[in-house]
Amino acid sequence: MGILYRTLLRSQLRGVFAQHRTSFHPECRELKCPHPGLRTLSSAHAHRTALADTYEEPRNLRDAIDACLVNARKRFDETVDLCVQLNLDVRKPEHNLRGLVRLPAGVPKVPRVAVFTTLPSEAEEARAHGAALVGAAELVSHIQTNGITFERCLATPEALSYVARVARQLGPRGLVPSEKLGTVGVEIGDLVDMALSSVQFRTDAYGQVHVPVGKVSFGPERIQDNVMAVVQHLLRVKPDTVRRRYLLGATLSRTQGPGIEVAVASMMDR
């Protein structure tokens, strides 16, 4: 009885799905439902995505930027992201790349910077260069009370003992200052300037690096300068154990737009 009931139920469901099945309209590339009582599944975003998918070959960098910026949303300023596929083996520690890369044409979002220091002169210099939070014991108290309210964390060498007190809060977000990452030093003004004009990057489990390289309002010229800066930085930090081709591919995309494949050779002309 149970098998017969399930068979009848499947046949009825198939009839319902066949009655309300959507079809693809070839001219306007929109999803339309033939049933008059159901809502039309179409949007301008789907139309733009379908048009962008007609390009199969990778484009040079400038053409890819222009294609990425076309038909951008007007309601908000979308972020433009660069994804670079690297020939890395993430199982090797030296292949786990991470750090900061300076964007010469500006960052998509200016981060809030916190500075651990016990020297009054260093604190004054950090505030003069734009640091939002500066201190030692008072900064530790702020983190313990309010949590993490900043995106970059810097420190001078003598203040690392205060950093250790809140390492459990900073560690999961990758904010613990270290000399290897260039977030610990005595020239605190230069470190703050670097933090305010740079973005973080880190390889994921597939050897890819995702970096925001600007906003739609930046325009093609500024985005191109930032993309070239990211690529040149990745070439400088290339691990010595990589013997074959290092840059395998790249893709540009905005917040609500399709991915545009970029020819790697066009990013290495300079």
Could you please describe the fold and organization of this structure?
This protein is an alpha+beta fold and 270 residues long. The protein folds into two domains: 20-54, no CATH class; 58-267, Ribosomal protein L1/L10, rRNA-binding domain (Ribulose 1,5 Bisphosphate Carboxylase/Oxygenase, 2-Layer Sandwich), CATH 3.30.190. It is 34% helix and 20% strand. It has nine helices and eleven strands. The protein has helices spanning 2-19, 44-52, 61-69, 120-128, 137-146, 160-165, 167-170, 188-196, 220-236; strands spanning 23-25, 30-32, 79-86, 98-102, 113-116, 133-135, 152-155, 198-202, 208-215, 247-254, 260-262. The chain has a four-stranded antiparallel β-sheet, with helices on one face. Strands 6-5-7 form a three-stranded parallel β-sheet, sandwiched between helices. Mean pLDDT is 83; it is low at 16-42 and 47-55.
* Structural class estimated from helices and strands: alpha+beta
- Report the average pLDDT across residues: 83
CATH class of the largest domain: Alpha Beta
- Summed up, the helix count is 9
Note the overall shape: globular
CATH-defined fold name of the largest domain: Ribulose 1,5 Bisphosphate Carboxylase/Oxygenase
Q: What order do the strands of the largest sheet run in, or round the barrel if closed?
A: 9-3-10-11
When the domains are counted, the total is 2
| Fraction of residues in H or I helices | 25-40%
Series of H and E elements = HEEHHEEEHEHEHHHEEHEE
Estimate the strand proportion: 15-25%
The number of strands is 11
CATH architecture of the largest domain: 2-Layer Sandwich
Uncertain stretches of 5 or more adjacent residues: 16-42, 47-55
Largest sheet: 4 strands, antiparallel
Distance, first to last CA? 74 Å
Rounded Rg: 25 Å
Under CATH, the homologous superfamily of the largest domain reads Ribosomal protein L1/L10, rRNA-binding domain
